[in-house]
Write a structure and sequence with these properties.
Blueprint lengths: L6 E4 L5 H12 L3 E6 L2 H9 L3 E4 L5 H11 L6 E4 L16 H27 L4 E6 L12 H20 L5 E7 L18 H13 L4 E3 L3 H10 L1 H8 L3
Parallel strand pairs: 1-2, 1-4, 2-3, 4-5, 5-6, 6-7
Helix pairs in contact: 1-6, 4-5, 7-8
């Protein structure tokens, strides 16, 4: 896809991977609308010249409100990037049901509802794209992040089916599978992490190439291991 002149709606675009992706997409000539929910980050992104829509996509009302605000806009690309995790490890404590529900809503329900709400808009564009950001953990889960892994696996499954449904249309479907990236969500993880700038660069390249799947960073290795032995990939990841 030639990103120059494209109108992109990017969720979770005021911090982390999303903000770096917004900057790089703009550098390719795209017009980028980002969403966020933290006031100071929203103001900072607006200070960089981005159009920002305040929306808490971990609620159904936030999704409906976002769709209402972009109604009638000629969106060419939807990037479902916003995501969150929740502690869900019975070895440590009982899970927080409210946090689980917000994670399920943001990571699974919101992308699906945004795709449905924008489908007719995307169908009407000469060239369109849906980008769903899942995770390497959608391939093989770790032990400590059970609810996060489950949501990303669900979105991966949905994305694969959606791509098949839309293969005869002008809408291309790309799945992005990042590794552990240096973001606010991973500050407590003491391991090697990919920079958000590097992750965003790989996403932009995959978009330009109309790739079906972008295995980012170390996920390339995990994908290779899984192709040789799914059981081995699962054993390796369940050690964490």
């Amino acid at each position: 896809m030639d990103l120059n002149g494209k109108l992109v709606l990017l969720t979770g675009g005021t911090d982390g991977i999303g903000l770096r992706l917004a900057r790089q997409l703009r550098g390719k000539g795209a017009e980028v609308i980002v969403t966020g929910r933290t006031p100071d980050r929203i103001e900072a992104a607006r200070g960089e010249g981005f159009e920002v829509i305040s929306a808490d996509l971990a609620t159904s009302g936030g999704v409906a409100g976002l769709l209402a605000q972009v109604a009638g806009r000629p969106i060419d690309v939807l990037v479902n990037n916003a995501g969150m995790g929740a502690a869900h490890d019975y070895r440590a404590a009982m899970p927080d049901a409210a946090a689980d529900e917000r994670t399920l809503q943001l990571n699974v329900h919101a992308p699906i509802r945004l795709i449905a709400g924008l489908m007719e808009t995307l169908r009407a564009r000469p060239e369109a794209m849906i980008v769903n950001v899942t995770s390497g953990l959608a391939i093989a889960p770790n032990t400590a992040s059970a609810i996060y892994c489950a949501t990303k696996a669900a979105l991966r499954s949905y994305t694969i089916a959606l791509r098949e449904q839309l293969k005869a249309t002008r809408i291309h479907v790309l799945e992005v599978l990042p590794p552990v990236v240096e973001t606010a969500m991973t500050t407590e993880l003491h391991m090697k992490k990919l920079s958000p700038e590097a992750c965003a660069a790989e996403i932009v390249t995959a978009m330009q190439r109309n790739a079906d799947e972008a295995n980012v960073g170390q996920v390339k290795f995990l994908r290779l291991v899984y192709s040789l032995s799914p059981a081995l990939a699962r054993r390796l990841m369940l050690a964490f």
